[in-house]
Recover the amino acids of this structure.
């Protein structure tokens, strides 16, 4: 176990980041539910878009951080990168779940079904299963070094599905709408502003959640080290 992993007091920055995240989310909720007008075709159901897209985007960011953390851990064997990787993966699973749930809520009135085996939906569900498996594996391997190495491999290989999810609506026949095209946006300017506000808010919220989750993971690793060698 890396001796640099020690329990420390709560950093003042965590509290500030928490308040900033809270304020940003309140602004995002206000702009999505009150400020922006309803869509001309979908009405108020369009408002789900401002939670669905940022959730999916932050999920991609989360798994990229896990991917990057896994690579650096395998190169350095520094457990701090493993802590970052697992923390981001866990938060990423949460945001992927939100994306799947909000997508289903939107699909019911628009598509007439809670779920279809659309390429975008199917590849996103596969992504969710990959990182749930990542977390399950970590719970079932006791040796910290072996656990971190195996998880790093899954986190790296699993990230391959992220670009597949993103490109699925361009590669295969799909009913999922395309919002962003190179050089153009398929939404009104006021809707784009609302979406950007939500993206920023969700990203800040992600950073706060990962910071808190990483602190808990460090404590857990120190506890495991003490249980293995209480006289160390």
């Amino acid at each position: 176990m890396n001796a640099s992993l020690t329990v420390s007091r709560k950093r003042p920055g965590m509290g500030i980041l928490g308040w900033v995240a809270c304020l940003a989310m309140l602004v995002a909720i206000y702009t999505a539910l009150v400020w922006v007008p309803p869509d001309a075709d979908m009405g108020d159901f369009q408002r789900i878009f401002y939670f669905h897209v940022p959730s999916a985007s932050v999920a991609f960011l989360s798994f990229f951080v896990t991917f990057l953390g896994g690579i650096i851990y395998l190169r350095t064997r520094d457990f701090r990168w493993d802590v970052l990787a697992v923390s981001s993966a866990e938060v990423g699973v949460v945001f992927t779940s939100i994306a799947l749930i909000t997508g289903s809520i939107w699909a019911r009135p628009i598509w007439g079904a809670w779920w279809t085996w659309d390429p975008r939906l199917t590849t996103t569900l596969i992504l969710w299963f990959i990182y749930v498996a990542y977390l399950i594996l970590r719970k079932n391997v006791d040796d910290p070094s072996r656990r971190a190495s195996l998880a790093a491999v899954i986190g790296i290989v699993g990230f391959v599905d992220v670009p597949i999810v993103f490109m699925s609506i361009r590669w295969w026949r799909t009913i999922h709408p395309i919002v962003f095209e190179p050089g153009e946006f398929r939404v009104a300017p006021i809707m784009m502003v609302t979406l950007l506000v939500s993206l920023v808010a969700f990203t800040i919220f992600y950073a706060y959640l990962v910071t808190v989750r990483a602190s808990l993971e460090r404590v857990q690793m120190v506890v495991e080290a003490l249980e293995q060698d209480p006289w160390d």
User: Anything to note?
Assistant: Helices lie at 12-35, 49-76, 79-111, 119-139, 144-158, 161-171, 189-228. The beta strands are 180-181, 184-185. The longest strand covers residues 180-181.
